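quick one before i forget lol
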Amino acid sequence: MKIKDIANLAGVSIATVSKIINNKDEAINPKTRERVLEIVKKYNYTPYSSIKQSQDKYSFTLAIIFKGKDINTTILKSVIETAQNRNYSVSIYLSENSLEKELQHITSIVKNNVDGVIWEYVSKESLSNSKYFNESEIKYLYLNTPENNYFIDYSKGVYLATKQLIKRGHREILLFGSDFEEEKESFEKSFFDSNISFNRKDIINNLMELDNILIEKKVTGIVTKNISQAETIKNRLNSKKYRVPEDISIITFKNDCDHSHFSALIKDEEKLGEIITENLINLCEKKEYKFSFNQEFPLNNENTLKTIDNSHEKKIVVVGSINTDITLNVNEFPAEENTIIIHNHLTSIGGKGVNQTLGIQKMGVPVSLIGKVGNDSQGKSIVSKLVLENLDIAGVEKVEDCETGKAYIYLKKDGQSTISIFSGANDKLSPKDIESKKYLFKNSVYCLISTEIPEITVEKTIEIAKNNNSKIILKPSTKKNITDSILKDIDIFILNKTEFETLSKNGSDIGERAKYFLEKGVKNIIITSEKDGYIFINKNTYRVFPPINFPIVDSTGASDVFIATLTSYLIKNAPMENAIEIASYAAAFSTLHQGASNGLIDKSSLETYINKTNSSLFKF
């Protein structure tokens, strides 16, 4: 620091400062003298002649400035040991995140004539103070900034940590506690490079956000910055009955000397301290750099990492509607210019996509759901419920400024119903969305599609499913026509009687009408009716299955339960006709309860019941 800097800080002339520090200040106001001397002491001002004399020889002293209140003990220990091995001593300064304190330290270092400085600066504003080191010919290297490459590259580390989870089959991964945009971008890049869709909301900063996201979606892995955060997260997960790593894996960062059971990438701060010190001393002694710092981030253990082995697991993908079902109990269906009385009402989750997915899960078969909900209270409630069911909903997204789909179901006492659909967010499911979720089709054997989504999205779904050798099961709904381009790829076409008659173009009986679809390329047709039974048709077969005579409370969603159960047994290699009979029982059970999602039966209960009457169905 020069005399003019002191004068500027004190608000006086250079001559005034000169008189005061040379004790020739008899004519100067005492308060001015006191102010100038305080600044001289505060900023360690030393006359240039004194500095010049001391600069002619080595002091064999280094300084290290940490920007915060805390000392990185691993780096400091390494710096001191390396310096001592080269016969240097080390002075330590803490800036406490204060630019003013940092400047005081810099002026003190200049006064004490150290040979070199390891400088972790407070902010970019600090860099203007490097002039004091340059003027005094003091060498310096920046610590924990990219300028000299002496830093732990957490951006690279976050990328590698996330990839460790991805390669173990994880897709629903959170980044916890990252303050830097570069690290967030690296987190996103790890998904992009793995062809996995990414959600910016998966970057969270506190436990409250963690609690909220655990309600909204299924999470399988968390990346965090340090052992302390990892411990805090584990404790919170345990309090909510999540196990680490059985339910959720955690990966963090640690120094090689730290003892912890957590899976962590090793950040070699000891090596960083050694290399920056060696290179600073070589710089002071006018020697060439001998070392470069390259962080590899090796993994220490797999204690808190679980591998999700999907490599040989056969699964089903469901692409379809997600709705709030509003069931209205009536004596008669609405008619033109007719007012009816609603005797009761029930709100539940529904939509063909949801009903089929829940039904498949009840059968113990891996399943992924793809669909959209609105970013409204109903959408959030649906997602929360699906998470509680432990479903794979990586393919479910919320649509901003859009309502969740709704089904208004008019239900009579005899169990028959008529439905009005408000598509809402279901109409926003696009081919681009399916493309972004194509990783979910890996290992899929069947893809279930309902036509309550846009037709172009149905076509894209079929394309991606076929590319993954997945068979197409399609349930038409709200459609008066199915294009030939879709029909030709359908492996199993499941319709009720009304849909069958509406979509078939000609023929006086069921056989002739079915021929229309078969000639278009449909492989198998199943016509459903909880009252009249089921008809199975292909080029070689025409078989009628009698109904299961249970009292019908609500037939809404019975076809979805039938489809879910049928597919669940087909994937287990059941013959088609066995699977149809088993599924007809599940559909019948679903009609005993009001609300489609309320009537789902689990695999164990279903098989226990059927085994009492027709155990031969399971002999395949």
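fyi Residues 334 and 340 are 6 Å apart (CA to CA).
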